[in-house]
Amino acid sequence: MIDELLLRIPILGSKLIDFDDFFEMIIRFLINFSVVFMLVRVIYFPIHKRKDYLVTFFLINFMIFFVCIVMSDVKMNMAFAFGLFAIFGILKYRTEQLPIKEMTYLFMVIAIAVLNSLAGKKISLAELMLVNITIIAATYFLEKVFLLKHESRKSIIYEKIENVKPENHEALIADLRDRTGLEINRVQIGRIDFLRDTVKVVIYYHESDPTNSHNETTFVSNRNE
What are the residues facing 217 on neighbouring strands? Predict the structure, then answer.
């Protein structure tokens, strides 16, 4: 009798607890967490070794999941919710040049949060699990099986500005290979500073094991060589 009374006590206009909705939220969160853990911790992190993005992906996923599931009783179109949080996620990082791979993972963790929190009653548990497993499997095969060589990149402040001329392209690559010890696949010429006689060069190289690589690492070539 007391338990029934407690359940009827309104808090902020709602019941103290609704066991059906509460356990549904727990189940949905466990599914969501399992998928994101496999995607980010098991697949992404061993390859890219970026702890900052690891924490970011988890926190954004959790935040969007709980916001969506709390708002699930509000009449809100799922496509609208997905677009809203996807745009939020992209605009939030507009001040940093987010690599395309990390941007893709960010998009996926947002999509997974929205999917697992707002999937309607018409979507069975089997269908929901199939979608989640497909995302994990596709990511695993693309990262671990099909793309055996990963293209990494580094930004370099380079002082031999005469080598950026098109006719000296081969000399530029040879000099960069000699200095960095990397088997450079291609280079991209960035901002040229004629006052300091330097140029920003982005080098791209393939690695079979990219666990020790750090994308967008900037260093200065030795001007005294």
Answer: 154
